[in-house]
Amino acid sequence: MQQVTGFSRSNAVDERATIRSSDADIIDLGALLATLWRGKWIIGAVTSLAILSGGYYAYAVAVPIYTATSVVKLETQEQSVVDLESVVSGLSADSVTINSEIEVMRSRSLAGKVVDRLDLMNDPEFNASLQAPGRLESLKAHLRDVLMGSRDWVARTEEQQAALRRNMTVDALLERVSITNIPNSLVFRIQATSESPATAAEIADAVAELYILNQLDVKFEATQQATAWLTERVAELRIELEAAEAKLAAFSTETELVSPEALQGLERQLKELRDRIATTSEALAAQSDLEAALADARTRQQRATASGDSQLQRLLPRTESDTAVAQAFDTRFAQVTERARLEVERTTLQLAALRSSETELRARIDAQGDDLIALQQLAREAEASRSLYEYFLGRLKETAAQQGIQQADSRVLSSAVLPQRPTTPRKSLVLAMAALLGLMAGAAIVLLREGRNRSFRTPDALEAATGHAVLGQIPRIPVRSRRKVLEYLRTKTSSATAEAFRNLRTSVMLSNVDTPPKVILSTSALPGEGKTTNSIALAHNFVGMGKKVLLIEGDIRRRTLNAYFDELPAEGLASVISGAVEKEDVIRPVPEYGFHVLIGEKTQVNAADLFSSDRFQALIADLRNDFDVIIVDTPPVLVVPDARIISQEADAVLFTVKWDSTSRDQVQEALRLLRQGDQQITGLVLSQINPGGMKRYGYGGKYGAYGVHGSKYYVN
Question: Which intervals hold domain AAA (predicted)?
Answer without folding.
Answer: 528-672
